[in-house]
User: Which sequence fits this backbone?
């Protein structure tokens, strides 16, 4: 089994941080969902305005896409990056197949987040604060792991792609900011966020 020779400690620390932030957001959304069930009709602590709120998102069918509240996916899913990060810091090395599966999981999370962003902006017309926290860590987690995997040859790629991935890996922060700006521009064009502030 091919194992990684290097120890990506910065990536490990980031995965732990992203996982903890994601868990906090998922926990907060779970508490808010419970509040909607125990005190229907009451506003939630994350409902700041008609535009910035989580109530509409949590009570929509999009908020329970698989038949249970979406935040439960976050509670379970964010444990994986934390476990991977802690394992790396403890000296674990992972086989190539593990990195591929981990990347597939993050790609699924990113795909789901992109769908939720589109539903939030274009269908529900809201910006859910805790949802945005989840978006904000899912995007760089996917970028970091994907670029790391391409640069290390865990994902099949040409030498040029590996070199490009190594370069882009050092630009994770600017790439993430660009992604945030794209979402912000789309939200502004669709919802006129600035006028509602």
Assistant:
């Amino acid at each position: 089994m091919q194992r990684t020779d290097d120890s990506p400690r910065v990536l490990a620390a980031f995965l732990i941080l992203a996982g903890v932030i994601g868990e906090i957001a998922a926990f907060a959304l779970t508490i808010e969902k419970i509040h909607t069930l125990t005190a229907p009709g009451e506003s939630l602590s994350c409902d700041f305005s008609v535009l910035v709120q989580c109530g509409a998102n949590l009570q929509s069918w999009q908020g329970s896409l698989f038949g249970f509240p979406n935040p439960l996916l976050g509670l379970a899913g964010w444990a994986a990056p934390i476990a991977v990060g802690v394992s790396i810091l403890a000296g674990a090395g992972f086989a190539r197949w593990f990195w591929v599966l981990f990347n597939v999981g993050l790609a699924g999370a990113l795909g789901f987040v992109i769908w939720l962003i589109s539903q939030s902006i274009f269908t529900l017309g809201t910006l859910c604060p805790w949802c945005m926290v989840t978006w904000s860590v899912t995007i760089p987690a996917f970028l970091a792991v994907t670029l790391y995997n391409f640069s290390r040859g865990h994902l099949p790629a040409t030498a040029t792609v590996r070199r490009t991935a190594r370069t882009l890996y050092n630009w994770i922060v600017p790439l993430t900011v660009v992604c945030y700006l794209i979402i912000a521009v789309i939200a502004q064009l669709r919802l006129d966020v600035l006028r509602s502030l």
